[in-house]
Amino acid sequence: MKKLTTTMMQQTLSKQDRRLTVGLDLGDRSSFYCVLDEAGDVLMEQRLSTTPKAIKEIVRAMPRSRIALETGTHSPWVSRLLSEFGHEAIVAHARSVRLIGESRRKDDRIDARTLARLARIDPQLLCPVKHRSAEAQADLTVIRARAALVRTRTMLVNAARGLTKSYGERLRGCNARGMKPKAAQDLSPELKSALEPMMREIESVSERICEYDHLLESMTRNRYPEAERLKQIKGVGTLIALTYMLTLEEPHRFRKSRDAACYVGLQPGRRNSGQSEPQMHISKGRSVSPSTPGAGCAPRSRPLGSRQRPAPMGHEAG
To answer: Could you tell me which residue, 173 or 249, shows the higher pLDDT?
Structure first.
């Protein structure tokens, strides 16, 4: 199809007075979109940069349309941008749309067409999801940044201990939070000089983690006072309570507590057929870690500021 300039695209879209259906295949640097008219015919296909400016130029010229995209790194801010311009943004669950994920003929153009046609027929085929608000995403980013620092500290501590053991020596006994340069004082001179920069870095990372802890405590007191109710549960502190609240964000959309449990991944699989109803394992449709409630609510987890040894932070998927 002939490549159109931005002006030509805007003129073509502005002439459409009927509702359009658009499939938007997001990429890290560039994306591809396909526009269908009411009859299902391809009206336009084009590549564009994955930037707010480029997307605004296109969606501003469209009449109010239904735009489908898949979950991914850029889908939160893109979906919010589309909604700001009055479009119906449908965010498809990427793992559930097997017609795209498991296709043997897969490229940006085909994926955009498939998204558009599925959205035109029935949006429920896309297993739509709702992204959290920009404010909740920003607050959750604080927790994820802290988790990244905890993983970094764990990696550095393990490396320091492993290097000393391979040399036939050991660091002074202490936990990760208490790992400071003085823990290497009893080492041989050559090993001490080699590990001192790493020990200082571990101490610096621990200080940054403490700063995040204070920030989370302040955030909870000033903006999420309801977290105090969750902290009454044994083993649940500020970190777990705040993460749980930000993950659910809107608790009133769940009719029962069981629905909230399914939302965070505590849901058994189902493979019923006729009279057969086998009992399946808990699914992993959502990541379960101290950064996303689930495993984080286990008794071994600690409240922020407690004297117990902190549980290691798990993988955070987004």
So the answer is: 249
